[in-house]
Fold this protein.
Amino acid sequence: MGSRAAAERLLEAGAVLVDGQSRGKSHKLAGGEEIAIEPPEPAAAAPVVPPPELTVAYSDEHLIVVDKPAGVVVHPAPGHASGTLAHALAAAGAEGGEEDRPGIVHRLDRDTSGLLVVARSHQTYERLQRLVRRRALTREYLGLVVGKPPSRRGTIDAPIGRDRHDRLRHSLDTATPRAAVTHFELDELLPRHALLRVRLETGRTHQIRVHLAAIDLPVSGDPLYGVARDLGLERQFLHATRLAFDHPVTGAPVDVTSPLPPDLAAALERARGS
């Protein structure tokens, strides 16, 4: 016998016919009616997307540093059941943490490119997590913003969380604030823009984009918090350009860099000439 919830779903979908007509769940039967159920067609299965190819910036038996392209989701989420970076990492031997995000201790937004460090064992995963908690994992980004910063360097110390009015956004106006600290330094001043080198002390969702927008320096090309399609960009100008840390097993220093990808390098040239 089906559940009450399943029956309600059929009614809401208009799949229950009384004497040939669709009726809602508030309809009362008089007795003697003919009832038929026409279940809706099952939803088509989402196409299986192959995992992306990995660009490896550094690797050893304990960990791997990958250079993620823009447009790739880090781990499975609603609407992204396949084709994520996590699927490719699992095939490359990543281990530790949750089964659907093996070895992943920090993440990047889908349209942010750049470097991620991933564990290849449960022990390395736990040690990398400790580095993150101690804020001993240096994460530097290059971000192009619209406007001129008030100083050559600065720190934004402002808790952020899910926005009170828009669940797709994060902001300072939130009922669930979490500590967030972002440091920035001017790398290049341009006619209408500024190239910033940004360092994360914490790693909240959309942190850099939210913090820079909060001080009136929106990220170029950012459709959610910044200036969409600025300089012809199809995504936010944000690239995780450097990762530096003491190796969690050997203790040796690891310092990996990634150059700007072609779309951001081209936008930077346009900004220099604007």
Summary: Residues 46-134 form a domain with the Pseudouridine synthase fold (CATH 3.30.2350.10). The CA atoms of residues 110 and 141 lie 15 Å apart. The helical segments are 4-12, 85-91, 122-133, 207-214, 262-273. DSSP finds five helices and 16 strands in the chain.
